[in-house]
Design a protein that fits this description.
heterodimer; A: five-stranded mixed sheet; 2 helices; B: 410 residues; five-stranded mixed sheet
């Protein structure tokens, strides 16, 4: 099965098996990955599944939809050029081994 | 229960071959008073069952309910999410352009509503909501005994929601009976619907008027829909309809969510202590209450094609009843589902639905629940029932008429 590597804000790495077609948000919540909440279940309204994608993977990701872009503008932690909503990143064979970093917070302080 | 065909049944189709029959009426007092044994009976009978009382199929297990909610292409909302088929039977309400449509209309409506109910908008509301929650809880704690349904679960949303939306001050008392009526209308035209419907003539024109641009304050989140219309993202008529939808769906649901959370806290004392020790758990505590009580118990979908589900074959155009409340208590998915546990992982629960129609106001509901539970956790040492709570029966909503509680101040 493909794998995804989640890296916490403190630098802790967690390698998790990720079924094809399942979003990195869903895999994270099923596997108890800290730092990803996914309150709205993948509807791009809550902004609590924000991740920073390791730069070498960016070109392999699906294009961002306008709704994702709009919700990303409201994330609690800093938005960076490699910010994505992990609910919009579905595992594919090409993404096997992808590394994503979780932000220090998913809610405003 | 031994029911036979309900006098309010709208369908008389024969069951598909092989489907287990479950002889219950899920829209009667006996069911509402204690739905759990009936939920279990449906879940145990099979992944999809037939309810002869209404000649309709139903799903009560987590896996099938969630899968059907996610698959809007097969299980459409466009024929209405109540028992009646909007196209075959006409409609009691004006059809919603968010709840009762599929893409592409749904996508337009949803994007605009998402702006009005976004995380950024919620951040602007948090401070004011917190102040009001603290004020209200201070008043109630000073009295020691109060009705946590009317004086807290109803009072709080009625104080914060209309102001945040930007409504006028008059006639806000219509909001609760209006919601009660609409959520009854998703079921059969039984005594619950008939008792709430007579107010329609008075309340429908009021809702229509309240949702007009000229009657909204410019700084409320309702106006954001009209700003989307100004920007050409939706039409002005759509903006009006979407404000109307917020008025319809935004009050009874949060009232029952908050009522559920307080009722849970009054029954599960150790969970209250957990919350007191860590008020940061207020948000997950509210979420778990939405799973545990499932304020919205049921919604219907309509099959868009011949569909195999759980070994049964459903014809195209068949209404199917999804028991969200039962899915959220299905032991096939949840450990100890009948226990309220604020540290439970609730991800995937269907209390707000799932998929494209998942509650668009969920952030507002969570904000209300969170700030109120936090205000309570910081002020109340102990909360317990001071009398027998009274259920309010509604064809869709699970909620209370009264919840007498006694509290001890910190």
């Amino acid at each position: 099965m493909p794998k995804v590597i989640y890296v916490s804000a403190e630098g802790e790495r967690m390698e998790v098996e990720a079924p094809l077609g399942v979003s990195l948000m869903e895999t994270a919540t099923l596997e108890d990955v800290e730092g990803i909440v996914g309150e709205c279940g993948g509807n791009m309204i809550c902004s609590t599944c924000h991740v920073y994608v390791a730069p070498e993977w960016l070109a392999k990701l699906p294009a961002m939809q306008p709704q994702e872009n709009s919700t990303l503008s409201q994330v609690a932690a800093e938005r960076k050029p490699n910010s994505r909503l992990s609910c919009q990143l579905r595992m594919t064979a090409a993404l096997d081994g992808i590394e994503v970093h979780t932000p220090p917070n998913q809610y405003p302080d | 229960m031994n029911t036979g065909l309900s006098p309010h049944a709208l369908y008389d189709d024969p069951p598909p071959p092989g489907i287990p029959l479950v002889d219950i009426d899920p829209f009667c007092s006996e069911f509402f008073a204690d739905p759990y044994p009936h939920h279990a009976a449906m879940r145990d009978a099979g992944p999809v069952v037939w309810l002869p009382a209404y000649s309709i199929p139903a799903c009560a297990r987590f896996a099938e309910v969630r899968a059907a909610l996610l698959d809007w292409q097969t299980f459409s909302s466009a024929h209405g999410v109540g028992m009646a088929d909007l196209i075959r039977h006409g409609h009691f309400r004006l059809p919603s352009i968010i709840l009762e449509v599929d893409p592409p209309q749904h996508t337009r409506s949803r994007a605009a509503l998402g702006k009005a109910l976004s995380p950024a908008v919620m951040n602007t509301l948090r401070e004011r909501f917190t102040e009001i929650a603290e004020e209200l809880v201070d008043e109630l704690v000073a009295r020691r005994e109060f009705d946590a349904c009317t004086e807290l679960a109803e009072a709080f949303p009625l104080r914060v929601f209309p102001d945040a939306l930007g409504m006028r001050a008059e006639n806000r008392g219509h909001l609760l009976p209006y919601g009660d009526m609409v959520f009854n209308s998703f079921g059969p035209a039984n005594q619950f619907f008939q008792a709430s419907a007579p107010r329609a003539r008075e309340v429908f024109p009021w809702v229509e008027a309240e949702a007009l641009r000229e009657n909204l304050r410019p700084d409320g989140f309702g106006m954001i829909l009209y700003q989307c219309a100004d920007a050409g993202e939706i039409t002005h008529e759509e903006a009006h309809k979407l404000v109307r939808s917020i008025l319809t769906a935004g009050v009874d649901t949060t009232v029952n969510g908050i009522g559920a959370a307080v009722f849970c806290m009054a029954r599960f004392a150790e969970q209250w202590q957990k919350l007191r020790n860590n008020p940061q758990l207020a948000r997950p505590a509210f979420e778990e209450a939405v799973r545990f009580e499932s304020p919205v118990q049921t919604f219907f979908r309509t099959t868009t094609r011949k569909t195999a589900i759980g070994g049964a074959e459903l014809e195209e155009g068949r209404k199917i009843l999804l028991f969200l409340g039962s899915a959220n208590r299905d032991p096939r998915h949840w450990q100890n589902p009948d226990v309220y546990d604020i540290e439970r992982k609730t991800a995937g629960h269907v209390g707000f639905g799932a998929g494209i129609h998942m509650c668009v106001g969920q952030l507002l509901a969570r904000l209300e629940g969170e700030v109120l539970l936090q205000a309570m956790a910081r002020r109340i040492r102990k909360i317990e029932l001071a009398g027998e709570p009274e259920r309010r029966f509604n064809n869709t909503l699970r909620g209370l008429n009264s919840l007498p509680v006694r509290v001890e101040a910190v």
